[in-house]
Amino acid sequence: MATSRANRELTTDDKTEVVKYLQDRMSLGKLPRGSIKAAAAALNLNRKTVSGIGKACLTQGSSPSKKAGRVGRKLRYTPEHVTQLVQELPQEERSTMRDIATATGLTMGTICRNLKSGTLERRSSRLKPLLTDENRTERIDNTMLALTPGFGLKDTGIPTFRRKPRLRELAF
C-alpha cells in the first residue's frame, strides 16, 4: 500500500492489512492512543478510513463492501427457472402479472421480459366466440339498417347514422 490507489474503493486485501495492523497494536481489547493515526500514516490512508475499517471489523467481525447488492452482475433467472416458478403456482395466483411477481418473488421486469421473449405465454379465461359467417351477415344487415334512408352519404362521403332521440327530448 505504499503506492497511491487508482480505485476509489479499498480491496479486501487492503482492508485485511489495516485490520492486522490494528490488531497487532491492540492490548486488552482496546487500541492505545494514537494507533489509528499511526496506522493511517504507515499505510498511506486517511485517518477516518482506518477508523471506519477498524470499527466495522470490531462490530461486524468482517468488513464487507458497503456496495453489496448494488455492484457486480445482476441476478438473472434462466428461462427454465422462471417457467418452473410460475408452473408451481396454483391457478388462482396467476391471474395478473403483479400477482405472479409477488407470489414467485420475481420482479415485474423479469416477468415482462420473459413474456416478450416467449418463455411465458399470456392466457385469457375470457370466452369470446369467433365471428362466423352467419354473425357477420347479421352485423352487416344491422349496420345497413342504421344508415339514413336515401343516399346515406353526405357531401363529404362519410356515411351518416340516424340519431336516436334522447330521453329528455321526448315529450310526455
Shape descriptor = rod-shaped
Low-pLDDT segments, ≥5 res: none
Q: What's the quaternary structure here?
A: single chain
Structural category: mainly alpha
Percentage beta strand:
under 5%
| Straight-line distance between termini | 98 Å
SSE pattern, N- to C-terminal: HHHHHHH
Q: What fraction, in percent, of the residue positions are helical?
A: 40-55%
How confident is the prediction overall: mean pLDDT? Answer: 78
- What is the CA-based Rg, rounded? 36 Å
Number of helices: 7
Tell how many strands the DSSP assignment holds.
0
Q: What profile does the largest beta sheet have?
A: none
Description:
With 172 residues, the chain is mostly helical. Among the domains are: 12-60; 79-117. It has helices spanning 12-25, 35-43, 47-60, 79-88, 97-104, 108-117, 133-146. The protein is rod-shaped.
List the main descriptive attributes of the protein structure presented here:
Homeodomain-like_sf, single chain, 7 helices, 172 residues, Transposase Tc1-like domain-containing protein, mainly alpha
